[in-house]
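User: Thanks for the earlier help. One more: UvrD-like helicase ATP-binding domain-containing protein. Can you show the sequence and predicted structure together?

Assistant: Of course, both are below.
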Amino acid sequence: MPEPVVDIVRIFGSIEQKLRELASGSWLHPRLYYPAGSEEQRKKLRVPLAATRCNAQISILWQIDIASDDTAHTECQVVKIWEIGDKTELAQVIDRVVLLQKSYPDELVTQCRQKALEDAAKNLLPRSFTSHSDTAKPGEVVQRLDVRTVDREVLQMVNRFYTLTEPMIRSVLANDLWAEYPFDFSGDETRVILHFDTSNLILGRSGTGKTTCLVFKLLAKYTAGCALMEERSPRQLLLTRSAELANKLKDYIDRLLRALPKISIDAGQEQETELPLPDVGTEDDQPSTIFQLQNRSFPFVCTFDRLLELFENTVNYVDREGFPVMNEDEKDDTPEKDQSNQSESSEEENPWWQPSTKSTIAQYVDSQSFRLDYWPRFPANLVKNLPVELAFAEIIGVIKGSISCRETLKPLSREAYSELSSRVAPAFTLESERSQVYNLFEEYQALKLQRREMDGIDRVTKLIKAVRDNQRLKDCMGATFDEIYIDEVQDLRCLDIELLLSILNEGRAFHFAGDTAQTISQDSHFRFQDIKALFYDHFASAASLANQPELLRPRLFMLAKNYRSHQGILGLASLVMEMLWNGFPETVDKLEPEIGQIHGPLPVFFLNCNVQMLASADTSSDEHPKRTLDFGAEQAIIVRDQSTKAKLQAELKDQALILTVLQSKGMEFEDVFLWNFFTDSPCPGGWRCLHTLKTKSGNFDSKRYAAMCSELKQFYVAVTRTRIRLSIIESEEILAVRVADHLKHDVSSPLVEVTTSSDPDFLKELLSLRSVSHDPEKWSHRGHELMQRKQHDDAVICFRRAKDKRGETCATAYIFEEKGRHLTSSGDTGAARDYFRSAIQNFLELDMITEAVRCLEKLEEYQEAALLWVQSEHPLRAAPLFAKAGMFKEASDHFHKARNYDKAADALRQGDLAENLVSYVTENQKKLSSRSFKSHSRICIWLLQHKKIGSHMLTPAIRLLGSPKEQEQAFVAYEMHDQLADLYVEQRKFKERLLLFFRIGKLGQALKAITDLSPADNNSTSVKETQQRVQNYYFAGQIVCPHQDEVHIPHQLRSSNSDWISAQRLITSKQRDFSFEKIEAIKNSVVRQFLQLHSLLNLRHLGLVSSLDGHTIQRY
């Protein structure tokens, strides 16, 4: 049961009071603090510890320490809190502090022990000192902690402390577990974070805090911008290549913003306003174009691929609709008609300007699709002896995406590629190799065109062209962002950075963090000097006009303090980097050697170790009972390539996690076993020349041994994967022994230890590295990490070790899917179908509908895929699959159900369902966007003109014609008189309606139409004549054919046609007193003449003819 909030407030209240007293410097009260620790402990402390009692049980353990202040140029004394707890807890912490203080440099101890200053009231004031680099001074010996002798709690204590702030106190009192707090920074980190004058390049190896500096620089500028900008918060963009890292940074930044002090958004207002928090929802919640980004969207954190998608949708939108004119308020006040057409009230939000299908099949070629879908299709002579990863990297990073392609945005020609320096393109240096790679590139381009796919460079170049060709688009994109921050920039390509520089024309707005030593990703050939060249090209003119040369040169910051690893590992890593710089200076950036905070074991070479020794799990001996050891979740075996991995995995089975160097990049383990790295090296001659790489002038032949660039980078990545122990295990010692001797004897102090199979304790020492514990939770966690990295085969091993059936089923499903894709590319469609079906079964077992649908799409089973989404109540995802299955009516119905009316109409058009389309457009006219309605109306007109629709659909089709005049002409052409009459009524053309009824002989309708005439019409002579004729014909017709076309006669017409009514009564009268004299008595001559003629022709009255005299007959 958690403690009641009232108890937390009461307990923390006394703690807070003492913390404030310590911070105030008012320490005159004799019982505020007392020396902490036993007498023996106090003798070991280099800086005194003090304790302040808060109540009978709780005390605060603290000391004077040194930290950077806000200026980044000075340091000052601070109160460092080690622990708040009871006596037992404080005693345990004091022992740890004794260990930690052993690593304090002498200068730091002196500064901590200096007596504080005093003000007039005798309050203590902290002393300040000039800030120095975080790394040790030349010649200074620092006694570091040893990772083997300190526990995890000590290691956690040494790294990070937090500044006590008012927001932190409020969060504790509020029991807010969501907020995150900024920790204290080193002097070097503070200088990076607070540099605002220029753009920045932050260089540092793994674990030096590059990402941390980038995030807090963003937050520092965000808070400063919010204080200065009255109308909106700064629009900052943070990019990563990893979706996993992007999600973590989204969450972390949101937590940090919640804990920042309140500031005023409007500098002229006195009241405080909370910082606007970023919108860090799921991917489905994110905007689709830059026009949808609002103030609350920033800081905007996403992957580079997500940004490309955002830009692509923006370009497509502009091509269709032009530039919307919207202010911030209007964006949230879109008419209901548009909203209903653009979204579904669920996670299926999919605006119409996005592609019409949300296909799960990859549309872009990445390293995985290149390996699975392309590589098996290439001729054998093109892929012979080529590593698939390096080939793809060369095509994307050099031939298509290098800085040489910037101007033309076209791939390098065969000649230009062949002439590239080996330092620019070190992966393939021989002429025959480059010819083979270029032939492969041409085959790849042709196959990609055939498959109608794009790769990352195609996407970027298309966007760069769009920006270059449309200045307004460029200005609009540039106005969306104020700053761009890029983490792990070495994983981007030159053209990626060119796109960003093309959009945002501000020389101070870019902040990059990365490590060129880690550029072994699948498609990156990054160099920091390329960024410098791009900066010069983009900002030279602006810098000259503004007389600000600093715009041309991003400020370079180097971080050397490593928080992740110990000095035993970092010593070797630093030497590798030094050799890389000496031999290949254009491929890596010169940095100071990395410095670790703690000592640790040196890497160990195990020479002449065969696979059986590595696989052995038996530790039995004469002195010890038999024990079975295994590799743990925090251990990994790293090998050079996939073939070595497959052989070793066959021997070890599921005992250990085995990764290639490339697969291990970005991962961390407590222990790493590097297997046969030197034994299997393709460049043994280069490793034998290590002594020539010790200095810049060591006569190393970089052209002859160009492959050593990649070798050294891979070795560096492998070395830096471990946090504690590195074991370099070689089955042969021919080459490895020379490397080991150099690293042990040809350096100022040994960087490695060496043992061989002939040593008596060799096997015992090797097996002592194995784990004796089995933690299912750690294995499961490792499996999920590998799943996110799409390393499914390795994840299966982890899940098996964790006995995680669900995880194993999921990973196996992905493996089946990959095998299906590979077999499809190889042409074995039957076997591929079996694997896809197995994957589908596994995915459905786990209710992973998206993944199951993706496999069904590969099988072209679109109807089955659509029905899965229908069963899951996702109509918007089912609809495009119905369309792919040729079931366009079903597709339209599901688009309509998802309230995506434009696409519902599109589906009917795509399926040539003419009558359905006409009906749908007519019934949903108000729900369709103006663009869609106009487009589909034109289609309906074409259908009408070409008689593609039945007669029963003519009316709705004609109703969709562009103008009333066109509709009138169509109704006339098709003799659709009733519909034409309705059109006249809508247009209030009552005169035309009257004439229509009169012309077609609908006299009753014409008679009623007379009453609808306007006064202006009634004054027209022609209309009056027509009215009279209509009335005459109508009443005459009723006399000749009673009740035919009979209508109710309005009162005003009855009074004006009294003679006709009298005539009608006279004719229909059964009285026998009918006579011509009564006809002669009618005043209306037309009525009278009609009756006379009617009487002559009516057979009932022919008997009267004989009684007429000649004169009378002649008159008639």
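User: Great, one quick takeaway?

Assistant: The chain has a mean pLDDT of 79.
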